[in-house]
Amino acid sequence: MSRFVLGNCIDVMTRIPDNAIDFILTDPPYLVGFRDRSGRTIAGDKTDEWLQPACNEMYRVLKKDALMVSFYGWNRVDRFMAAWKNAGFSVVGHLVFTKNYTSKAAYVGYRHECAYILAKGRPRLPQNPLPDVLGWKYSGNR
């Protein structure tokens, strides 16, 4: 059964048995202190104190030979990579989603989102692998 669960990820996952989840897709806070145009912020986006405990729990609840796809903050990739590897995950792929708009600009205009494909064990290879660069449909966060 597929379902979405709202709550603090660490608190919620502690109630899930070991090796119970077939696949994880996560878009965690990027550790960048995000604030949108209206002033809204994202909980947990300023510190990484939650990152390793969350990755440990995701590894524990994920079934053996299964995958997790995790978006991440590209300028904090060192923290995410360390947490994933320390939890036990292996990196098996990387996805880039191109956007038709610039979400932020500094030295360059940010027109992409990235996600790593992470494995617990040795998941079976797909018959028809996705391309590693995909389009991104703008939803306006609705």
TrEMBL record:
Please list which residues make up the signal peptide: none
Residues covered by the DNA methylase N-4/N-6 domain = 21-124
* Molecular function in Gene Ontology: DNA binding; N-methyltransferase activity
UniProt keyword Protein biosynthesis present: no
Methyltransferase: present as a keyword of the record? yes
Arranged from A to Z, the UniProt key words for this protein are:
Methyltransferase, Transferase
Q: Which domain of life is it from?
A: Bacteria
PROSITE patterns cross-referenced by the UniProt entry: N6_MTASE (PS00092)
Which Gene Ontology BP annotations are present? methylation
Q: Tell me its family.
A: Belongs to the N(4)/N(6)-methyltransferase family.
Q: What is this protein called?
A: Adenine-specific DNA-methyltransferase
Q: Which organism is it from?
A: Salmonella enterica
Cite the source lineage. Answer: Bacteria, Pseudomonadati, Pseudomonadota, Gammaproteobacteria, Enterobacterales
